[in-house]
Design a protein that fits this description.
Strand order of the largest sheet: 4-3-2-1-5
Largest sheet: 5 strands, mixed
Order of helices and strands: EHEEEEH
Low-confidence stretches: none
InterPro entries: Transposase_IS66_Orf2 (IPR008878)
Number of strands: 5
Protein name: IS66 family insertion sequence element accessory protein TnpB
């Protein structure tokens, strides 16, 4: 069973990232561009240029994990800010993001009260 590091520190790297990057390159990017320590157990999320691929980098006590998800329809909702390099998320917002839902303003789905 694959488990993700239990943490409350989840960061999105604003802007587009080259999806050819691997674990070492993404960890170096966290250190140099984001000015954060990739070995703290935090989760770092990166999105590709087209917006349908996301990579998640996490470090547990034994080493790095790299997860990739590609949507078949649509794009991942991603912040476009020039002031910030990272955006912090909660676990619930990360769950919405991975489901392809806009985590910034999720909306309720209409459910009829009467059957039929």
């Amino acid at each position: 069973m694959i488990t993700v590091v239990p943490t409350d520190r989840i960061y999105l790297c604003c802007g587009a990232t080259d999806m050819r990057r691997g674990i070492n390159s993404l960890a170096r990017m966290v250190q140099q561009v984001l000015a954060l320590d990739p070995h703290t157990g935090a989760i770092f999320c990166f999105r590709g240029r087209k917006g349908h691929i996301i990579k998640i980098l996490a470090h547990d006590d034994q080493g790095f994990c790299l997860f990739t998800k590609r949507l078949t329809d649509g794009c991942f909702a991603w912040p476009t800010t020039k002031d910030q390099v990272t955006v912090s998320l909660t676990k619930a917002q990360l769950s919405l993001l991975l489901d392809g839902i806009d985590w910034r303003r999720p909306s309720k789905i209409y459910r009829p009260r009467l059957a039929g």
